[in-house]
Amino acid sequence: MTSAPDALYPGSSNPYHALLAQAQTQRRLLSVHWEVTQRCNERCRHCYLTVLPPQRRPDDELTTAEGLALIDQMAAMGVLHLSLSGGEFFVRRDWHELAAAAHAHRFVLRIFTNGLAITPAKAAQLAALQPYAVEISLYGADAATHDAVTQTPGAFARTCRAFALLADHGVRTVLKTPLMTCNIEQFDALRDLAAALGAHFRYDLTLTPRRNGDPTPLRYALRYTDLVRHYRRTLTSAPGLPGAGCRLCNLGRNALAIAPNGDVHPCLELPIVVGNVRAAPLRTIWETAPAWTSLLALDADALPTCRACPLGALCGRCHGAARHETGDWRTPATAHCMRALALRQASIDRAFITAEMLPLTAHLAALKQRLEAQDAGEYEPARLDQ
């Protein structure tokens, strides 16, 4: 279960830690992720969104005036972190107005982009806005892989150029990569490329279906054996061995997500609608929307399988992933159970732990057997040229 705030930062004099502790006890909104558009200039095969062409602006996309008013509302509520993404953020012609308003309110600002639209002029504008980071997606260590994933010829060169332009202007960048069957063997090369580009490297091991339920992105997801092999190579010590029970996210406690049309969601991975900023102020939605009651009650006791799981601290359980898979956010999500099993197996293989230190429940033992049987059968990763 999630620790109490004073347990997270016992005796800490760090003002930021104190703010987080206060946010936990007072249910204060600290972080907002706003997807400003569903339009994009790439067509990534694994994307969880059903993106629209750059020129096709939906009728329901928030206008500039509505966006600026929304940013003012966030500031009035004391929001600290704001992430602006898409689709592709720079598809919006008013991107600078939105980012400048966020800068004026002194948010810790992150901008998510594929980098294709970054020019010397835009890099200079971004530098003047002093974002905490510009996070750029790169899907391969070479043009063949990246361009095949994005289905956009020349994207790799333009994305790498964006890193260079931002570095020249002193903008902190993050190179983000979801690891997939098509790029897992490039892990070291991707990490080296990030260093060469002057970027921090961050990667994810999990893909999700599209929000409309389309499972196509899962064709590129890593298998159990891929994960075990990855952890064998990257683990440097034993995982933590806490008591049984899963870790819970802070769903509904200090963060939310906003869609291009103003719909408010508990998070990106759980896109149920709790309100819309066109129908009510953001503060009203945060303080009074009926949906929060059931979400805030979603503690470990409400999770019959996960609440006593011995691998709970290894899985990074996500209610949204469970809902995507089964329709019920109280169930386990196979992707996260698989990750926990792979981390356990790699730790055993590296002699960091013994099997007895992290025993398997019947649920996990059955899943492990099924995953190993699947991987032992005929398997060919989804091809990017199809």
Write up this protein:
The chain has 386 residues and is of the alpha/beta class. The chain is 38% helix and 11% strand. The chain is built from 15 helices and nine strands. It has helices at 5-8, 15-26, 64-76, 95-104, 120-129, 143-150, 155-168, 187-196, 224-234, 282-288, 291-296, 312-315, 319-326, 334-349, 362-376; strands at residues 31-35, 81-85, 108-113, 133-137, 173-178, 200-204, 255-258, 263-265, 275-276. Strands 6-5-4-3-2-1-7-8-9 form a nine-stranded mixed β-sheet, covered by helices on one side. Helix 14 crosses helix 15. It is globular. It starts with a helix and ends in a 10-residue tail after the last helix. Residues 1-10 have low confidence and may be disordered.
Looking at this protein, list some descriptive labels:
386 residues; alpha/beta; nine-stranded mixed beta sheet; disordered N terminus
Oligomer: single chain
Biggest sheet record:
9 strands, mixed
Question: Strand-and-helix sequence, N→C?
Answer: HHEHEHEHEHHEHEHEEEHHHHHH
Structural class: alpha/beta
Kindly report how far apart the N and C termini lie.
44 Å
- Share in β-strands: 5-15%
State Rg: 21 Å
Helix content: 25-40%
Helical stretch tally: 15
What's the overall geometry?
A: globular
How are the strands of the biggest sheet laid out side by side?
Answer: 6-5-4-3-2-1-7-8-9
Poorly predicted tracts of residues: 1-10
